[in-house]
Specification:
The protein has about 450 residues and is an all-alpha fold. It is about 75% helix and about 0% strand. The protein has one domain: Up-down Bundle (Growth Hormone, Chain: A). It starts with about 25 loop residues before the first helix and ends in a 12-residue tail after the last helix. It is a multi-pass membrane protein.
């Protein structure tokens, strides 16, 4: 599709660190369109993912046979985790497309696949209707979701970093986790409203399907916005100089294995923290601590609102103080404060639960607001999408998608409500070691990475 950007926009946003002049009106308009495209697309992708986590207890009843203890819930989270198995595969595929054909093409296709597959979840038959075919169909659709989501976070981050003014790459890249949290926020709000207004029978019969049906119109809007944009200046420059490589995956393993390994370990805190703090927490409060579903969703919703505000501040701080410093502070904070935070969750009332969730979310933003720019700057332009997508998705497949399952399993094995806190501490320790080994990149032009 022909872009609506004027010819002079092709050079509107430079990635050279020497560009210190204020952006023109056309440059500002271009940046606004870039931010909107990245925000809306990522918002849709992670709204879809969040809804599954927030309705986990209902989905367990709908798609799995009645069982004792928490077997059905474990089965629901197992399906959630298995869908992450295809994410490394998706990372290789979307990375190849993004580095060889263009960032915009990969992002436009991925959002379409995610929207269709999420809409399909709302149409699936229950276990009462289809028997064991129901969870099988759920697993298939979740695998498709996982494949499409593999290209979203990495692609949107690379897209924003390559368009952003040199000294604001951290702030612009922080739009990606902010849009992720906004998608989760909408999912949490809908879950709270539906759980408060519908009976258990209505929720299990048809109420849980409504959020999934929203995926189709939102996905079409996101795709339309993305197809109206030019690809990034950095990628267009690469293509014009005929420097686009045929096998970015091979080049990544051959020439950039060290930053790849560092990135995979640095993602660990985000992978575990994101899914424990922002998606698993309502289930934890309901099934482990005995809070009502509405109370649990309200607490998480409040935490998400504050998370969105904090994360943009963190992105801005990373532009001033550096990526390494912010990520080190985040890791140390989690190592020191996570278990005490879970102790407070177990001991306090609802008000204290809300405050603890806000605190955990704020701690997480120190990592999440910095990580997109950190990962994008770890790799040169010719393999940036691939390096980001592979490192991010491998860690999320191994530790992010399994986080709700592992939290539930560890609680059962240890008979301790603090088990998720210890698991978060371990992830933070690995992240800390990796970041210490990384080089600082926030002051470098992208072409010098």
């Amino acid at each position: 599709m022909k872009s609506d950007l004027a010819p002079e926009d092709n050079d509107a946003v430079k990635t050279d660190a020497s560009a210190t002049t204020q952006p023109t009106l056309e440059q500002k308009r271009t940046l606004r369109r870039v931010v909107s495209a990245s925000f809306v697309g990522n918002f849709v992708e992670w709204f879809d993912y969040g809804v599954y986590g927030y309705f986990a207890t209902t989905i367990a009843i709908v798609f799995f046979p009645e069982s004792e203890d928490n077997l059905a819930l474990l089965s629901t989270f197992a399906v959630f985790a298995v869908s992450f198995v295809v994410r490394p595969i998706g990372g290789f595929v979307w990375g190849h497309i993004g580095d060889k054909i263009g960032r915009r093409s990969a992002l436009s296709i991925s959002i379409l696949i995610m929207s269709v597959s999420t809409f399909a979840i709302g149409l699936l038959p229950s276990f009462a209707v289809a028997g064991f075919l129901a969870p099988v169909l759920l697993l298939v659709v979740r695998l498709v979701q996982g494949f499409s989501a593999a290209g979203e976070y990495a692609g949107a981050s690379a897209f924003l970093v390559e368009y952003a003014p040199p000294r604001r790459r951290g702030l612009y890249a922080a739009v990606v986790p902010a849009s992720t949290a906004t998608g989760l926020l909408l999912g949490s709000v809908l879950a709270a409203v539906l759980s408060a207004t519908l009976s258990d029978g209505q929720l299990e019969s048809w109420g849980w399907r409504l959020p999934f049906f929203l995926a189709a119109p939102m996905g079409l809007i996101g795709r339309y916005i993305r197809t109206r944009l030019e690809d990034t200046p950095a990628f267009r420059e690469l293509a014009q100089q005929d420097e686009v490589i045929k096998a970015p995956v091979f080049a990544m393993f051959r020439d950039h294995w060290r930053p790849l390994l560092i990135s995979m370990c640095a993602v660990l805190l985000n992978a575990v923290g994101f899914y424990v703090v922002l998606t698993y927490m309502p289930t934890y409060l309901t099934t482990e601590l005995g809070y009502g579903a509405t109370e649990s969703f309200v607490a998480t919703t409040i935490a998400l609102v504050t998370y969105i505000g904090f994360i943009l501040l963190t992105g801005l701080a990373s532009d001033r103080f550096g990526r390494k410093r912010m990520l080190i502070i985040a890791s140390v904070t989690f190592i020191v404060l996570t278990v005490p935070a879970f102790m407070l969750l177990d001991a306090g009332g609802f008000t204290l639960v809300v405050l603890v969730e806000i605190g955990l979310g704020a701690m997480l933003t120190l990592n999440d607001g910095t990580l997109p720019s950190f990962l994008a700057e770890m790799f040169p332009t010719r393999i940036r999408y691939t390096g980001f997508a592979v490192s991010f998705n491998v860690s999320n497949a191994l530790f992010g998608g399994t986080a709700p399952f592992m939290a539930t399993l560890l609680i059962g094995l240890t008979d301790s409500h603090l088990a998720p806190g210890w698991y978060l501490m371990a992830a933070a320790a690995v992240c800390l070691c990796a970041v210490i080994c990384a080089k600082e990149t926030f002051h470098k032009p992208l072409r010098d990475v």
